[in-house]
Amino acid sequence: MKKIQILGTGCPKCNQLEQNARKAVDQSGAEYEVEKISDLKEIMKFGVMITPTLAIDGQVKASGKVLSVEEILRLL
């Protein structure tokens, strides 16, 4: 199963990105697991310094902004 990772410490923008990712998965009908990563050490492993960050299967797709549901759908 493919995985979407939301990297963030729990700020409102991080939470919004997670909600948007879940909506995008629902709309796409594809099989994705949405994982929230809030541990700073784990976030650092992705090489990002700005949150929120969205990664798909371990590859960073966007950092420092909240993607819309439509933008996430295009990445899927």
Fold topology:
Blueprint: E1 2-7, H1 12-28, E2 32-37, H2 40-45, E3 53-56, E4 59-63, H3 69-75
Parallel strand pairs: 1-2
Antiparallel strand pairs: 1-3, 3-4
Helix pairs in contact: 1-3
Task: List the defining traits of the structure above.
single chain, 76 residues, alpha+beta, Glutaredoxin, globular
Report the strand count.
Answer: 4
* Tally of individual domains: 1
Report low-confidence residues grouped into runs of 5 or more.
none
Within CATH, the superfamily carries the name Glutaredoxin
Secondary structure class reads alpha+beta
The CATH class is identified as Alpha Beta
> Which topology does CATH recognise?
Glutaredoxin
Count of DSSP H/I helices: 3
> What profile does the largest beta sheet have?
4 strands, mixed
The percentage of residues in β strands lies in 25-35%
The rough form would be described as globular
Return the CATH architecture: 3-Layer(aba) Sandwich
Mean pLDDT: 96
Measured distance between first and last alpha carbons: 13 Å
Strand order of the largest sheet: 2-1-3-4
Radius of gyration, taken over Cα atoms and rounded to an integer in Å: 11 Å
What is the ordering of alpha helices and beta strands?
Answer: EHEHEEH
Report helical residue fraction: 25-40%
